[in-house]
Amino acid sequence: MTPRHTARGIVVHDGKLLLMERWRPGLHYFSIPGGGIETGEQPEETVVREIREETGLQVTTGRQVLEMRDGETRHRMYLCQYVSGEPHLPADSPEARHATPDNRFQPGWVAIGDVARLPFTYWQPLQVPLVAGLTQGFSEQVIIVSAVESR
User: Fold this and answer.
1) Three-state SS for 109?
2) Range 130-147 burial, b when 16+ CB lie within 10 A, else e
3) DSSP string over 33-52
4) Do the domain assignments include residue 29?
5) What's the total number of domains in the chain?
6) Which of 8, 25, 22 is nearest to 62 (CA)?
7) Is residue 1 part of a domain?
8) Which H or E run contains 61?
């Protein structure tokens, strides 16, 4: 089976980071919004599409700054420029259509100073380099972390 790579957007606006808050049975955590790269789609296009679909925001995509590898799967994180909108879960999004009281999503802005204290569960290996990049600036080189580090 071919791995499903993802592309995600790091969007900062007014000192806050756009994150997806997620509840699943027995879990509550945050993640960087984004999703699966479709056939024929460039990762930068995926970021714009997924952020619009999941949060209602319009963004433009900049350079890749982080990557998390889980076996053969690559989760790429891109710096994005906020263009417009307020975070909400659009009613026609797959996340809204499949939501239940035990499985739900809520996009929103989180103060950058609070990001280090949030639960990231699966995405935990990204938390330290994400916070460092947000507070000190992202490296010119893509920082690569392994999902295995959190297991």
Assistant:
1) strand
2) bbebbeeebeeeebebeb
3) SEEEPPTT--HHHHHHHHHH
4) yes
5) 1
6) 8
7) no
8) strand 58-70
Q: Are 23 and 104 in contact (CB under 8 A)?
A: yes
Does residue 102 contact residue 28 with C-beta atoms inside 8 Å?
no
How confident is the model at residue 150, as a pLDDT? 43
Distances (CA, A) of 59 to 8, 51, 136, 140: 12, 8, 22, 21
Strands 6-13 and 58-70, bridge-based pairing: unpaired
Q: Quote the pLDDT of residue 99.
A: 87
CATH classification at residue 73:
3.90.79.10
Torsion angles phi and psi, residue 129, rounded to 5: -65, -30
Q: What is the pLDDT of residue 4?
A: 87
Ranges of the chain whose pLDDT falls below 50: 149-151
**At 17, is the secondary structure helix, strand, or coil?**
strand
Cα gap 60→83, rounded to integer Å: 7
- On whether residue 74 sits in a domain, the answer given is yes
Q: Give residue 117's domain range.
A: 6-150
pLDDT score, position 95: 87
